[in-house]
Fold each of these.
Amino acid sequence: MYLKISKKRQGTRTYQYAQVVEAFRRPDGVPTHRVVANLGQLSDLEIENFRQALRASREKRALVLPPTSKIDDWHLRVAANLRYLDVAAALETWRRWKLPRLLNRLIPQGLDAVPASSVIASLVIQRCIDPGSKLYAQRWFPRTALPELLGIEPGQFNNTRIHRVLDQLDKVDDALQADLPKRYQLKDGAFATVFMDVTDAWFQGRGPELAERNRTKEGFHNRHKVGIVLLCNQHGYPLRWKTLPGKRRDALCLADMVELIQDEPWIGETPLVCDRAMGNAKSIAKLVESRLRFLTATTRPEIGSFTDDLPWKHFCDLAPVGSDLTIEGEIRSAARIAESAGLQRVDDTLFFLDLGIRERVLTFERPSLDYSGAAWDPNELEGGASFVALARIFQERLDMKVHRNRSDLAEKEGLTRARVTQIMNTLRLDDQLQERVLLGEFGYVPERLLRDCVKHEGETEQRQLLEEHANKVRPARRTSPPGPPRRVGRHATNLRLVAYFNPQMFVEQRAAISRRRYQVHAFVDALNCRLRSVGRTRTKQSIQIELNREIARWKLLSVFESSVRPAIDNSTKEKYWKVVLRFDEAEWARRIKHSGFVLLVGHPDLPHTGDELVQLYRQKDTVEKDFQTIKDTVKLRPFYHHTDPKVRAHVTLCMLALLLERTIERTLQRTNLTKCRTAPACFEELRGCHLNLIQSDPAFDLAYVATEATEAQTALLRSLRMAALIDPEEIGGKIQPRSGI
């Protein structure tokens, strides 16, 4: 055996690392060597002592220490024990996406001692490994090896810097989201599918302006919450996300995201899959107008408006109970009927019917144009449109107090006071008409026509003048990109329809609604017993209110028609109120006829077969699993922030943490490991390996030595292609010792 010395230069300092190496011959006779022990960083005295000891061992001599030597001089002191391997794996994943370079470009360091990208990386890694509040993050950070790995002193990771970085992150959020899809495509190519869904998250306390008091999706009442829309690809990588007010309906949230991405080049002809929140006719019209290759499921009450070709009549005679004793047989019976009704079998729990391309009349609404402020450049427009754009710029300057008044504005712009008034008067035009003039929908509009229009206060008269003018003038010359042509009103539209039937879902839905029906009858019987005992002490109105509230709780108001009538007890001749129910058989048949069926509505140009579309829609649990990850693993909620920018930045941190988790899981799925298949399991396995700061003598430098990795940890790192994280030379070369230890 002999001592092998490796030298590493880090800045102006040189470090020496020692290994005990043994020479031997392989079975084929080739001489080689193997490492017996890693001794880490040693001083020159320690290296010489080890060499003397090895020489004495080879010569079979005893090594005698000088009498003045003290055993305490060789006592090893562990100065710190830092969480290492799990944070190092997360940081390596972060770096492989080249996110530090992107964030350094978006948020330049300037005079700040610490790059914002390093603070963001620390916060994202914390959400992956040990999520908690930002106050907890400040206590957690010094107990990890992140100060060494990122070159940050623990005291620099403080509350003030975290707040500042969160505000900076919110400002570059749009640019960050615009860049991520390009990185995914460079690595994996074009997206196979894009999934979209919406969830919510609540606050601890009142929250900021975005937070609105409402019922959460988990059923918590009267919580301040916000909505979160997420768009992800087939691997679960987040593409786009948006934080919205808490009371905004899901369909409107999803429609906002559709409008945001419809012109993005990376989506192209990739199918967009969203749930039945976008399945009503109004939302489908918006999807059609977006030109995206969409796939959604219509709501159950609207299935009949798209087609009446579903074989629901074959299931009318089934009355499943759904109990533990009967459910398996009832599912088999429903499956047999589905197959006999002409539905194609995919497996025991799935049958489908491809209805092909069908025509449906949809109502297309004119989009509400957002007031664009001073976003238009007057130099890119002509005629009256340029005056409208200029008037908006002038108004914005007045609102921001750049000019004291119109007279001051005229003086600074080199215009007469009368000319400024003429320009500003164009803002009397209706806001919607202003947008249409700027978009060129009325062709070239001269300034004199606008002066005539603003003489009328009503939008109808103004629009009439502009439309009459538009019929006889040339189109407007403009360099800004025109808005897409839109249909307005009712138009026949081709849609791709595919229905699928789930026998288990059929049994559960039919049994559940039947139980609700019997519960209404049981409640009415109990109510009549109570009313008979109390006579006429209650009012008719109070009884009707209680009755309607209970039936509404079971969502069966349309099925039952109730009335409260006077009655007389034949034996006692006492008068009392009696509730009478009338069951609507037709409405009941309408409510249950589509049990177990789901009708998929898609773009007519989707190239998939019927069963492929069914499987594609059922894969939307990808985005649902993403939401589950950011809610439970990354701990998105509850929020503790009290300003809108920090709430949005917190959501962005959770989405970046989701990206790291999905990246690790996708890498592990391509291996044969059975124990660690998820990111949390991976981090749990790696967390036992710490970074130890060791000192052998006060006169010598501190040395960083990692805990010996277990076989499971080593195999996991090989699967992640991160074996270098436990290599002593790599650790010594990359670690930057912190001060204060």
Amino acid sequence: MNIKDIIEQKLSEVILNVYQLKDIKLEVQENKTEFEGDFTIVTFPLVKQLKKNPESIGVELGEALTETELFESFNVVKGFLNVKVKNQLFIDNFRSVNKNFSVVEKKNATVMVEYSSPNTNKPLHLGHIRNNLLGFSVAQILKEAGYDVIKTQIINDRGIHICKSMLAWEKFGNGTTPETTHTKGDKFVGNYYVEFDKNYKKEIADLVEQGMGEEQAKKEAPLMKEAQKMLLDWENGDDAVRTLWAEMNAWVYKGFNETYKRLGVDFDQVQYESNTYILGKDLIQAGLDKGVLYQKEDGSVWCDLTDEGLDQKLLLRSDGTSVYMTQDLGTAVERFKQNNIQKLIYTVGNEQDYHFQVLFKVLKKLGYEWADQLFHLSYGMVELPEGKMKSREGTVVDADDLMQEMYETAKSKAQELGKLESLSEKDKEASYETVGLGALKYFMLKVDPKKKMLFNPAESIDFNGNTGPFIQYTYARIQSLLSKAGALQSEIADIELNQSEKELIMQLANFKTTVAKSAETLSPALVANYVYDLVKTYNSFYQNNPILNQEDENVKRFRLTISDITAKTIRKSLELLGIGTVNRM
């Protein structure tokens, strides 16, 4: 429990004793004013109930609080009650933080987090990076908050878009492979998706020039007709098409796994759309039998959600084929059947908000009570200074290229500073990688997930300001300090604390509260901005307090210990964001 929580608890007890008022919670703020005191208590909410002015309420509460074991003195300024907390409370709180740092209280509940879910017709890009980092970080934070977590992805490995890449390779690939062209598998296949689009557009232009309308030309273009036939052949189990499909997907999976490894994300389970697209049809029949769904004359099946403020949703086409919603219904049911999970989180961009509203409501109508435990972690798109990306036109920021660019920038900066010269080449390379990718991850995760964001690589790797490298540098600085100090003694003496030491203790005590809040809101941005504030507070403490040169041995020991727990908290916070640390920068 942090000091603020302790004060709020004691304040509630005092209000009950003095005024006989239950369940009153006054706002307690850290005192940032020039008035003496560690915290400020806002008394105005009691004015109406007690029919007293705020100043007299402040005095009455101040006198009652200073009679307890926690408070030393108080003053009242215009109804704001400023209280000075006894030094011992800070010391005891710090001992508790130090002792319980690694303790995780288990929740006895399992959460499944879905993220990534790419298509096998193109490599991962900048948008996938935000998705993966967000999903992975949320999973890490939920674990730290005490939940058991299952990380999963569903790979979209079938459909017309996959057939476009396959057909283009058949026509234009001349039997080449990723190996013969020395190309990463997912990029190799993605190139043929772009190739299909280029040739398809040429065919449309030719048909339009011959007098056909554009919409008709899109349907009549030979390439599109061939791709549609290939999809039909795939669904009918054609051996040649299935063999090519399996081979090209294998190329892509190998490429994906290389990207995931470098990005530092992983999965406990993987599902494939080719296995799940037939799921859900039995649910549709059950819904018809219950009268929850209805069938039109053409045989198509619908769900009427107008009473929920939505519209009517198609769940099965007239020819009996499923739509995305059908398979998502089946996949959700399958996940709860196969895993003992209490919550399922879908990390998907905000362009799918409506889809998930419908999915959750249909599942609820079908009688699945756990539908209330489904959550869409909706996030804003990532844009570049030059605008949106387009996969078909090949104008995306490739995930691998971006990671390499971040590595190169970190390497260039480190060489400029010249502080890693004594390290081996292997250690230098590891440092460049950790700092470069740390910059990328922190920049992505410090923004609230709901917000659209503009990604600026140069800004992200600045060694000053709210950036990953700035935080990693402080960690490295503390490691250097602790290395010079030698072994730490575990006992913490009762010393008289100054203001910067108190502020640092309060920041450290807020870590577990921040993690809990971040888990509750599914926002890694809370952890990112917490660790930035912690680093700023520590740097202020470091600049204003001698540590190794401190003559009082008890004070020196305390300052080394608080530096050590600060480093551990920085490291743990960065771990929750999927970011590594280095001992030298």
Amino acid sequence: MKKILSVILTLMLICTFSVSAYAKTTPTQKEEVVYGILSQNGEVANVFVVNIFSDKNIVDYGDYTAVENLTTTDVINKSGDEITITSSADKLYYQGTLKSKQLPWNISIKYSLDGKEIAPSSLACKSGKLEIEVKITKNSKVNSSFYNNYALQVTLALDSSLCDNIKTENATIAEAGGDKQFAYTVLPGNGADIYLTADVHDFEMDAITINGIKLALNLDIDYSQFTKQISQLTDTVKQLDSGAADLLSGAQQLSDGMGQYVTGLKEYKDGMAQLDAGVVGLQMGADGIESGLNSLAAQNSSLLGGAQSILQSTFDSVNSQLAAMNLSLPTLTPENYSVILEGIPSLASLKAQLDGVVQFVDGLKSYTGGVSSLASGAEDLSGGIDALKTSTSQLASSANDLYNSADVLNTALLSLKDGISEYKNGTSQFVAGTADIDTQIADQVDDILDTISGSGGKTISFVSDKNTNITAVQFVLKADPIQITDTKDNTNDEQTAELTFWQKFLKLFGLYNEE
């Protein structure tokens, strides 16, 4: 039992020591206010940190060259980078001067007067055209979390009685007790290039201040407010795509029909060309017939005259012969011979001879009449064929023009179909692209908010990674003012009285007047 009790007591002592050691070394919850004292050109002169605690037993870490209790007279115990304080106040402030002079931002302040850069130490009481440039960039030597998550407000104050014609951009301007204040906001993850010009005389300027805070907007956007409109948009896009599909189908049918129509028009055009060529041949034949018939008709008078002479000579000869025979017959003529000779059988051969002559003359008359009629008909035929030739030529020309026009229209329809096809592809892509547009918009809004408010995350200590219980970190940076140097010797006027917290705080920034 003694051995068992010995082991238990040993374990209890070890556990008690471990708990005590852990309680001592666990960092206390706190806030940090980082004060950067800058030279007139923006170089860091000193970095002070005011640490704020609400606990009695304080454990903190920091690589300080000096520490000072701003609230009480309680002793600050410093061992390496570990700070311990047993506080008698409900809220304790202590200031530490950091060994490192690095800030999350590189700050450069340049001044030019009348176009020439001038040292700020030489600028007080000067007059002319003043240019001030404040440039802020990322300091890669410091944890990037501060640059990416902290917003800055840069403030310049100019005395309105000393500065005129002030020009700058992207500043919030306010009047404050005769000063014109220019405040510039720098979002997390961004640098700044601030440019200001003014006409000055007897120039002086208060300190340029830069305040940095962690920007956490914590905006809760109700995306459902525009979900309905987005749904309507996506439905409309789908309808647009469906309409494009119908339009493409109609264009395809129209193009196919037009292709068939053009093919038919080509056959019609080719047929009209062949008809026109055939009419040309027909016209040439008709012209030949007309010419031949006209030539024959031109002989009609001679033929009829010769035939009439033959007829008259024949009847004259027959009448002479009959008179010599003393038959006492009347004179025979083409009109009466048949009646007179019909009853005289002995003259039947004579009658037959006369019948042949009369029939020949009558036949020749019929022939010449026919030739005249044919010649007239051939003339009408030739005129009709000429008219037909004119019509077929016009038809062939019209058919060719119609085909060419249809071919152009068909080409246009093919282009239209291709264009509608591309349009349909575009609407399909549009449908695909807007399928999750509500999510895309939400993501885009979140991305935009991230660029404004930073990437978020846990607040970390600027002083030491060992300080793991940080509720807030704030940066207050101040550049030396430009003013006439006070040559008064104040060495014998120093106050030896103990300063209050607020007096120490104001003194830190040169705002406490000890007179």
Amino acid sequence: MEGRGTHSQTLADLLPKAAQAYGSAPAVRYKEDGRWVDRSYLEVLDIVRPLALGLTELGVAKGDRVSILANTRPEWTYWDFAALSIGATVVPIYQTNSPEECGYVLENSDAKVVVVENEEQLAKVREVRERLPVLEHVVLMVGEADDAHSATAISEKGAAVEPARWAELYEAITPADICTFIYTSGTTGPPKGCIISHGNYRAMLDMVNGVNVIEPGDLAYLYLPLAHSFALLIQLGSFDQGTTIAYWEGDPQKILPNLAELKPTYFPSVPRIFEKIYTAASSGMEKAGGLKKAIFDWSLRVGTKMREAERSGRKPSFLLQRQYDFADKQVLSKVRNLFGGQLRLAVSGAAPINPEILRFFNAAGVLVVEGWGMTETSTAATVATPDDFKIGTIGKPFPGCEVKIAEDGEILVRGANVFQGYHKNPEATAETIVDGWLHTGDIGEIDSEGFIKITGRKKDIIITAGGKNITPANLEAEIKQHPLVSQCVVVGDRRPYLVALVTLDPEEASAYAKEHGLPDDPVALASNPDVKASIEAHVEEVNKKFARVEQVKKISILPHDLTQESGELTPTLKVKRAVVAQKHEDAIEGLYAA
């Protein structure tokens, strides 16, 4: 580990140490007026220092809460480091949150200042401002408004302060001081504010450095919300290592074009994006059929053999090499080029991903591994690396992090990265940390080689009327393999058998409608008998892999996909089961009544 990272003591002195170590190396890359622009570590320092001192001029002192309500963009990073460096506690809010949800976090955290991205986010704060007596200042990242400070005004205030004052402030912060409250996105109940110290995140960074997750010279493409701990760790880890973060353009449609333009080497993501790319690549071949499909499938088999040879250190045979060259030219390189062609490693986190998708990308030379953790572990607890991974597992514990399985199968974690507790919620803290062990709520197992596998969520376990315990995640992942299926929620708690609510992928459904001469109407397609028959046939095939009690007996296709706006998905696109079950109660009852 010696020589890797800035060796900062806290997150407060991380940027100053990074600027000292990496100087003119590019820290951030973003699109401005249609072209990609870089800012070096020293330039970022010069942007952050006056913002930090400007916050102190607003009266922000050590321990005060500064909230950030914005999309993932370089300014998010600047304000984060500005607040952290003066000892403020950063409270991130998802840019997709409703005014009501923003109000809850601002009120619960006792935020003194909120930094909002633009007019759209400012409008949310205006709507709830009256019930926030502790909130003193609103700051706009971009633009100007009568009821908010502009970033320029704050920077000018800070520029008038003696720069040496900044060093006094960041050097006074200790590992025991609190750096952030991150509110869980709440798949059940209201969000809880996880209290995370500078020492927690510094320990997490040391663990990341210990297994070379981020390599020197990496370019990481970041579209994940910085309000989520996964994206935050990438930000902090990149600055600790002196690598470059490229920020997305804020438009989901631009993710694939951005990957092609930027050619990143490191891509942290959630399963939904990998699922979409996989569906686009494989469903095209299913439709093409014939020789094209045969070459595609053969190429994947050859790619798998080649990867096995590479990882075992064997030189591929003459025949395998010739086959691979052909397969690579025809199919595999095209899959790699979807990610820009330079990807060293992609990491999938925040939710389980179907191993079939990982095998597909692996064969094409795009290594996607899973990591696992939660906000309560300052982002992560286990990791898979290019040198040590097993598809279908979440890797092994980080060095310095202990993982064990409780008698009921729950995964327990202990380590310096485990959070301090929940803000204003001692009962939940006492339930979650018992005798120094964090109770994660995930169910899993550890194999003979030390790889950990998640088999379900404790809260998601379905207990059928017959008393059988079923974890629906694997079943749902298999059903989602159908090209037309976007989301699948299996239901069956206290019921005689399992049923599933399914939604259609809007893009795939639109293509299907065009192909079959049907109107491009999602509601009509959801009730189309041919669409239903196709998905039911797929579910029948999936059922063969599971015991009778775990099989889905009936499906209902919902007229619309699940969305964050409807409250059915979290900002990292995890399904809120309770919300879905409640909203679609009639559809569920209909399946059991029929």
